[in-house]
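thoughts on my protein:
***
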Amino acid sequence: MYGFIKRHSCFALTFLALTLSSCAYGPQFLSLNPEIIASGDSNYDLTNQTAIVLKVKDSRKSEVLGVSGDNSAQFDITLKENAADTLQANIVPALQGRGLEVNLNQKENEPTLLIDLQKLTLNSIKKEGFGYVTNLDLEIVASVVFVNKKYSKRYIVGTEKKNGSVSSSKSSEILVNEAMTEALSSIVNDNALFKALDTE
C-alpha cells in the first residue's frame, strides 16, 4: 500500500512539474505602452517653427518579434496592438508637451517628422551552459523633411539578459516598453532634431 501511494505521489509531482513547465512556454502577446519622458522646457531649441506634420510607420518585415523556448519547442512573440498606431498615440502628447502643434495630415509650409520603426526583435532561448538568454534589439529612424532640407538619425537600443528560466510574457512586455521609452524619449529630447524642425 505504501509503495502504491509513493508511486502515485511521484506521478503527481512529475505531473505538477510538467504543468508548471508548460505554463512558462506558449505564444506571447505583448502590450505596447511606452512612457515617453519629455523635457520640461516647452521652448526647448525651438525658435519660430511650432507646427509640424507627424507620420509614424512600421516598416518591419514581420509582425513577429521573435520566439521563446528551447530546442524542443519554440513559440512566437508578437504585439497585441498595431505598432504604428500605438506609437503615434504615445508620441503626439509628448511632442505637444514640448510646445509643438502636431498635425497628422499633410499641410503646406510645415516640416514633416517621420518616425519609422525599422526593427524590434525579442528572443528568449535556452542556451547550453547559460540557461535562457533573452535578447532585444530596437531601431527607430526619425527624419525631418521640408523642401530641400532633410535630417535623419537612427536610435538604437539593445538589451541582453541571462536567466534560469524563459522570459515570461510580463517580463518580455517590460523589456519592450523600456526599450521603446528610451528610444522615443531620446527622439523627443534630441537637440539636433528640434533644430531641424525650425524652417527659418
Notes: The helical segments are 2-24, 83-97, 169-188, 191-197.
